[in-house]
Amino acid sequence: MKMKVHIIVGAAEWEQDRLRYRRHRLAEFLLSRADTKEVIWLCPTPGQAEASITVLPNGIKQWKIPDLLPQKAFRFGRYMDRFYKKKAELFLKFLKQSCEHYSLCLWYTFPGFPLLADHFSWDKIVYDCSDLWASPISGKGSVVSRLRQRVIASAEERIIKGADLIFCTSDFLHQQVLAKLGTNYAAHVHTYENGVEFSLFSDEGEKADAARGFDGTILGFVGGLKPKLDFALMTKAAREKREWLFLLVGPDGTRRSSEFEELLQEPNVLWTGSVPPHEVPKYMNLIDIGIMPYKPSPYNNAVFPLKLFEYLAAGKPVVGVNLPSTRKYNEDVVYRHIEREADFLPACEELEKSVCQEEWRRRRIELAKTRDWNSILEGMYEIVVKEIPSLPASVV
């Protein structure tokens, strides 16, 4: 059996924002396997980068493909062949020279650089679809955003139709992919929701000292603070419940939007900024209720939040807003899925009563334990290594 080289097309450089997404866990899982020779993280970068490979501290190798220009407006080039073709060909040349004796698997984790699938003889091509990439994350539309949607949708459709396998993080995304392929190709599409590093988050250890001196109820959001979140809802809740502390842990991905800035003005709102991934469990131990307040939008219809099972693994009850993909996990004093702003505070008040009840804490932990990342990724990999018939030519 040939050793495998896995090339993962990531949406950004490995350590951007110091956040760990599904694609990071996938890369580390693949690297840990005995049949893996190496894992290469291929990613866009807004800065200039030499055509060479570097080794990250964890042993994963990284190759960066520069954007046209560093400004965000030029990121559309990641999806259009003519703007990155020469840079991608340098990488493919490197692969031919250094990895020709290995089995090569291409993993797309975002719909960038679709040309890669067409210009190399891959042993397998996999698309791990985790977002409705073509839809604006803020939920707001414009002429520019509509043009961007068409460009990304075209690139993603090429990847979907050229992949041997497609994994989706939500049922909504699964349905979207099948709408492009047709239901006759259902055997090529699988749903594997996001999971949790259970042993890391279930440890009732040290608490962060971010809320030193506060002894009331702490509601926490842990993760990237992005335009998909409903900051106005959090502001309203903070004003109505002055006795609660609203703790935000994570980097600002809004570019200090007015809504985010308004929220930060509230005296019972505390933002820590970005924290190292290994520190995150300390903040989970600190909070009483995990909150996931999302805006109603097409983008959020597809989202399966990474934090759901992390909150539950820490024994914390959770409230999720406008996250249809999580509706199936709705359970009293465990997880409350709601769709109306008016229900947010009542749901939090209800969960507040159960925070210290050991019976319900154990139930949350038990549910999270069934969603450990290792079992999820093992299940995905078992499908990948099977012999899978290629998609019919009529689809490709």
Explain this structure.
By secondary structure, the chain is of the alpha/beta class. The protein has two domains: 4-195 and 373-385, 3-Layer(aba) Sandwich (Rossmann fold), CATH 3.40.50.2000; 198-369, 3-Layer(aba) Sandwich (Rossmann fold), CATH 3.40.50. Helix content is 34%, strand content 18%. The protein has 14 helices and 14 strands. It has helices spanning 22-32, 81-98, 115-118, 143-162, 171-181, 198-201, 231-240, 258-264, 280-286, 298-301, 308-313, 344-352, 358-369, 373-385, and strands spanning 4-9, 36-45, 53-55, 61-66, 103-108, 124-129, 165-168, 189-191, 218-222, 245-249, 269-271, 289-293, 318-321, 335-338. It has an eight-stranded mixed β-sheet with strand order 3-4-2-1-5-6-7-8, with helices on both faces. It has a six-stranded parallel β-sheet with strand order 11-10-9-12-13-14, with helices on both faces. Helix 3 (115-118) links the parallel strand 5 (103-108) and strand 6. Helix 7 packs parallel to helix 8. The longest helix is centred in the middle third of the chain and has 20 residues, at 143-162. It is globular, with a radius of gyration of 21 Å. The protein starts with a strand and ends in an 11-residue tail after the last helix. Residues 392-396 have low confidence and may be disordered.
